[in-house]
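go over my protein:
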Amino acid sequence: MDLSVISEDLAEIEGQISDLFRALSNGFQKLEKVKDPNRRSRQLEELTDKMRECKRLIKNFDRAVKEEEGRTTADTNKMLSDKKQSMIKELNSYVALKKQYASSLDTKRVDLFDGPSEADHDENNVLLAANMSNQQLMDNGNRMMDETDQAIERSKKVVEDTVNVGAETAAALKAQTEQMSRIVNELDSIHFSIKKATKLVKEIGRQVATDRCIMAMLVLIVIGVIAIIIVKIVNPHNKAIRDIPGLAPPAQSNRKLLWDLNET
């Protein structure tokens, strides 16, 4: 195939498919020499993975060919279509060979496309694709692209919903963070107020204690004075308290005595 008339993407895909076909050919040749059933089953699974990858590349090749149709000549388009059909037929030959080995090993668990029913269905699709016209292949490809677009739209919607939920969660977390900051500030203010109130209560307690001491002393003084007055009233001739100012007995009798002496 002349690679100069096709794009680099198509040439790269074709090269990958060719490498896989060579690996499949060598693998099946080696598989014929293997006698151990378990080892043969493992190698057959490896070859099945290569066929699965080859089918995926053929689909990519077909998609790239459709994208290049408007930019290439009719001869080039026909050449690419023939190349695709050739790839499909070669892959079908390996699929049939794989079925033959799988049947001989009685390993129905070995599948080409993830599960027994899905594998048989996909293999039949590959076989039918060889008999489809270009228009049928294009229609089938367009249908698959529509389904892919719908799946992409659904995925975009899921991503959009996820982003919205993430934004709402971030906003809620931000609001909660601000609320926690306000609560911390209020707790700091309350703690400061409690410390200030405690200090004030201590000062008031000290003042009250001092006032109580003063009051106690005044009470003792008043009680002492009252006691002296009572004693003086009860015993006015008590010499122990006659010299106390205001409590000494009246000096009238002494003055009278001095007057009498003057008269004589």
User: Anything to note?
Assistant: The first helix runs from residue 8 to 33. Helices lie at 8-33, 37-68, 74-105, 116-129, 134-234, 252-263.
